[in-house]
Structures are given as C-alpha cells and as structure tokens.
User: What shape does this take?
Amino acid sequence: MDEKINQLKDLINESNNIVFFGGAGVSTESGIPDFRSKDGLYNQKYKYPPELILSHTFFMAKTKDFYDFYRDKMNSLKYEPNTTHIKLAEMEKEGKLKAVVTQNIDGLHQKAGSKNVFELHGSVLRNYCMKCKKFYDAEYIFNSNDIPKCECGGIVKPDVVLYEEGLNEDTIEGAISAIENADMLIIGGTSLTVYPASGLINYYKGNKLVLINRDETNYDKRANLVINDSLGKVFSEL
Ligand code: APR
Assistant: This one.
C-alpha cells in the first residue's frame, strides 16, 4: 500500500490540472450509506425496491411514498464532509485540482469548500415547484410531511436526477470539458455501473488515471494506478 501511496503522491506532484470523479463511496465515511455495497441503500429492505422508488414513474404515481422514503433515506443535512472532501477542497485552493465531478447529491463537496463541482445527478439542496418553478431549500423538504407543496399549489420536486430522467446538459458539458483537459483523473468511491455518468471518464485522454475504490470495478484494468482501499485512509496520507 505504501508503494502505491508514494506513486499517487508523485503523480499528484507532477500534475496541476487534476479532476476528481466520485460517487457514493466518497460520503460513506461521513455516515451516508452508498447504494450497492452489502450495506448499501439498494440492499436494504423497504416497502418497495429503493431503485424503483428513485424513478420518475414512481415519483409521479406514488408521490407520497416517494417523499416518505426520500425524507427517511436521502436527508444529508445532518452529515459533515470527511477527510476526502476536505483534502479535495484544499487541492482546489492550491490550484492543483480544477474540478470535482460527482454523482452524489449530498452537497458535501461544497460544504467542505470546493467551488467547481459538477453534480451530474443534481443536489438535495435545490428543489423547485413543478408548476411555477419557485425555489425551495432542503430544509423545506425534509421538514415537510406528506407531499411538499408550493404556495401556488404546485408540487415541489427535488432537483435530483431520478431513473428515467435526463442529466442537465450544461453540467455534462462542463464535466466533459474538465475531464478532457485534465492531466490527471482520480476516480474514487464509485462502482462505475451507472450511465451516462460513468461514460464521461472515457473523455480522459491522459496516462495518469487513478482508481481508488474499496471494491474492484470494470475499469480497473484501464487505470494506471489502482488502490483498493478506503478513500479516507488514502487521502489522510496525502
Ligand atoms: N472508500 C473507498 N471506496 C468506497 C468507500 C470508501 N470509504 N465506501 C464505498 N466505497 C466503494 C464501494 O466499494 C462501491 O464500489 O464505493 C462504491 C460505491 O458504489 P455505488 O454504491 O454503486 O455508488 P455509485 O457508484 O456512486 O452509484 C452511482 O447509482 O443509483 C445511482 O444515482 C445513484 O449516483 C448513484 C449512482
């Protein structure tokens, strides 16, 4: 492991246009379960399969059940950034890291101080009325009961990408541009099983592709350096 940490340090030292591409494994050490690990959200017993609940069809057909699950399982307001979030924000401040591209919706990268964050799947911090588009904050949603309504009577929907929904075009473009221009791409805490998010890493053209993940992924063989360990442990040694 030490040898790999030293290799990672060398790669970071010789790079000044680093992009980090992350997933739910970045936030597990803050206390937020990921999705597909054995104790992940999708392996928990619930009234309906969680992957079905987090779909557009379910949101429209069973909105109250959606919000019961969402308030119970997706409330990230009570969690704090961990070592990885904090170190990435520091690397951005030092001018080493140019962007974070995340699949997470918990807002913890910004809470740690990161400025240039592309949230491919949106954020729980942004919620809009489906009728008049009025903005509502996360507290409004997580403190609501039943279905959160707008003062105009419309239903308020979180600005998160549910299954069957498209990703924001501007966010995708920004993420692709950052990845295309990166001299180093560090991928961490993601199973790389969900598209189109995972497909974005194919835009990386350099030869400093690092994968830090507890479990193996289908992209391990394409990486220049693979560290199968916890992100907190690795980032605390940088
Ligand atoms: N350190 C390193 N790796 C970790 C850690 C950790 N502390 N905790 C978990 N992991 C790894 C797991 O081994 C797993 O491979 O992070 C990965 C998380 O994978 P998933 O649970 O599939 O999460 P993610 O890849 O972000 O899912 C992508 O799926 O349902 C959708 O929209 C949802 O954004 C999500 C997308």
Notes: Residues 81 and 111 are 7 Å apart (CA to CA). Residues 23-25, 28-29, 34-37, 40, 103, 121, 189-191, 193-194, 213-215, 230-232 surround adenosine-5-diphosphoribose (CB under 6 Å). The two ends are 13 Å apart (CA to CA).
